[in-house]
Design a protein that fits this description.
By secondary structure, the protein is mainly alpha-helical. Helix 3 packs parallel to helix 5, helix 4 packs across helix 5 and helix 4 runs antiparallel to helix 7. Its main location: membrane.
Length: about 190
Amino acid sequence: MAKQTPFTSIILLICALVYIFSYFGAFQPIAQAISIRPIGVLTQTHEWWRLIGPVFLHFSMLHIVFNLLWWWVLGTQLERMFGTTSLVIMFLISGVASNVAQLLISGPNFGGLSGVVYALFGFVWWIGWLRPQWGIGLPRNLVLFLLAWLALGYADVLWVNMANEAHLFGLISGCLMALASHQIAGIKKN
C-alpha cells in the first residue's frame, strides 16, 4: 500500500514518530523546532517550515489516532486518484492556510493535522457534489457528523481544546481546491 500512497504514508510516519518522541520526553525540543511563530518573527528569521510544522504535533492519543485515521482514509483515496503531487499541493496549501488562520486568530499554541484533514474532507465532499462522475464522495451522514463536530468546537462544549480556526480554514481551503479542480477539469474538457 505504501508504494501506491508514499506521501500519505510518510506524513503518517512523521506524525507518529513526533508523537512517540514527544511522549517519551522530547516534546519541548520538538515543539521549539517546528511550532509556528508570529508572522513578523518568521519574516525576520526566514524559518518558513514553521508555517507547516504544527501539523506534526499532537497532544493526546485520541488526537493523533483521530487525525491519522482520517488522514489515512482520505489521503490514500486522493493520492491514488489524483497522484502524489496533487496530494502534496493540497497538504501544503491547507496546512499553511489552516495554521496561519489559527495563529492570527488564536495565537501560536496549537498543533495537529486536523486542519489538513478538514481540507481533504472538504475536497472529497465538494468533488463528490461537483464531479460525481469521478466516483469519490462522502456519505451524507459522515458530512453531517464532521460539520457538527466543527460546530461543537465553536460551541465550546467539548472536553478538549480545539483549533477551531484551523478546522474551519482547512475546510474552506479544501472546498476551494475542489472548486478549482472542477473548473480546471471543465477547461481541459473544452
